[in-house]
Batch of 2 targets.
Target 1
Amino acid sequence: MKKKVLALTLAAAMMASMAACSSGGNTSDTTQNNSGTEAAEVANKDKPLVWFNRQPSNSSTGELDMTALNFNENTYYVGFDANQGAELQGTMILDYVKANIDTIDRNGDGIIGYVLAIGDIGHNDSIARTRGVRAALGTAVETNGAINSDPVGSNADGSATAVKDGSLEVNGKTYIVRELASQEMKNSAGATWDAATAGNAIGTWASSFGDQIDIVASNNDGMGMSMFNAWSKTNKVPTFGYDANADAVAAIAEGYGGTISQHADVQAYLTLRVLRNALDGVDIDTGIGTEDDAGNVLSDDVYYYDESARSYYALNVAVTKDNYNDFTDSTKVYAPVSNQLDASAHPEKSVWLNIYNAADNFLSATYQPLLQNYDDLLNLKVEYIGGDGQTEANITNRLSNPSAYDAFAINMVKTDNAASYTALLNQ
Ligand code: BGC
Ligand code: CA
């Protein structure tokens, strides 16, 4: 009963504040206090929640964790289209090989050899990229109806079972394409997508394969740049990554082969925008597919929404020497959604947000700076927590008082572990 009365009081207060806005008046202190009170009254389990970058899913089968994605009616995932991006990455590498066929085979043995740095064997983005590269280069084999994405370790003679030798005909000549080596870049403490591990691996690979290596492929730019700086730049071996981090885009001028933009500028916006909309109690499409009161709107060539998975996916773009000048600042907000929201209609709210690994190049150098630009535009006060990339507990330990926040944005260490977070909100 008491709850009902409170709810009614709140509804009245909200109407009063809306009236104040529509009449163009300044928001009174009382309204701001009321909105503070309102936040405190919402149970943690009912607060808006967005998963981002690591989609709640089974890390062995890839099956989506629908319980986590439907945690409450204001739960969403924001990421990007992993398959479309992976296909682009594969095609980008294949196009490069074809365009440079006269020089690509460094030792002239008719075999185009490549090495592949894998980020996290249980991460759907990483799996998709490994598959995309293998599919484009003709080295993919199917296991149980899907392209095998297992690392091969070392495959000097082409006998590995997770891949096969591909065959490529260019200008009437047939080449063999071989995945000479691949491995998950996980450090001894358990952190995946580990750039330093990739920097060491390329040293090992270079000493055993030398000029058999014609291409270096990587599941991301963090690892790609580490290999480029350690070896491929001086040896002039094209290296391909993913993420369009600023340092990787700049390196294209120095021989880095190319990268893929996963439209982090759109993803970072969506991550905070879905929370903003849920907190405002407006249609979730506001400022996304439908223009908001400040003129923000996205066109459908940069994202799509899959309602059944409660997931927003940004679309990817290849970045090569032909267009890299347009991508040099990876932390710039996306112009169509760069308008400041009015603080009286969209009062400040507080958000707890974590990055699974403070040392992840993409998330720390590209994604978080973008989030920090958008939080101001959307009037969100975000507390950023950086994890160690190894254990969920390192992060959840720092969510001791969920009641102090209006909404949550979560980037898990492992995609299987959504319940470690939702348990804290259910308490
Ligand atoms: C990025 C990687 C990053 C990973 C972290 C991926 O989407 O491409 O660079 O390490 O997310 O989860
Ligand atoms: Ca060769």
Target 2
Amino acid sequence: MKNLLCEIERNIALVTVNRPKSLNALNPETLTELIALFQQLAEKEELVGVIFTGSGDKAFVAGADISDMQGYDVFAGREFGRLGHRAMDAVASLPVPVIAAVNGFALGGGCELALACDIRICSDNAKFGQPEVNLGVIPGFGGTQRLPRLVGTGQALELMLTGDMIDAQEASRIGLVNRVVAQDELLAHCFGIMEKIAQKGPIAIKLCKEAVASGIEMDLARACRNEVDLFGVCFASEDQNEGMKAFLEKRQAKFKGC
Ligand code: CAA
């Protein structure tokens, strides 16, 4: 891979977009690599989760690559949008949790990439925005859909219609990020969350993510029936037996992920 770095330690993958000269902008090559990488990660049985970040201390991802998009016609624009959506979906549909460690600018496609992750933690210098209207386009990698679902239509539309950037504190206030931490503590903080997740039953972790991701697309009654089914599925696992037995025996559970 030319534009992404991936290191796996204690079954936690750290994925870094590595195009610092263009503030980690997403070009077609990077998006294609991202899809292939997440397909590989999805097949890793032991994987606890992924932490996603950007290279350098200035940007997470400053958006889709404008120098690439500039010459597109309608067909190329649609094709690029499709590719971006496939990449965001590859992140969102990974069976294990993905944390965005937002270490600077998360604009346009960069904000959309953070939105495709399950949890967003940012550094105090982070800046968020959907500045596409400044370029004569609309958000094209899921921003018009995932942003209002996360922060509500009013906040999402203000960001999309003004193109304004907001700082880390404001992103936290509107619920775009879970937490703001000092930049030099960002990765350690995200690893800390993953280490905590690693102690839990892996099947329950995956089913939690599935229940939320599939349920959000349904009406409440169907989503609750879906939850009941997935809750039931937990009882087919050894992890459920071990987790409840360990509680009653007042000891730490030893989950096996089966
Ligand atoms: N695409 C391509 N190159 C980019 C880029 C992008 N999205 N963002 C930054 N760069 C490049 C700059 O062109 C510059 O390159 P050169 O050194 O070769 O000139 C380099 O990164 C550094 O950027 P700046 O000099 O502009 O740095 P700055 O500190 O002055 O400003 C910034 C930082 C505010 C993030 C500014 O770079 C900026 O506004 N970038 C564009 C942000 C944007 O509009 N993103 C949305 C893209 S559209 C999109 O994403 C559509 C979609 O939904 C899919």
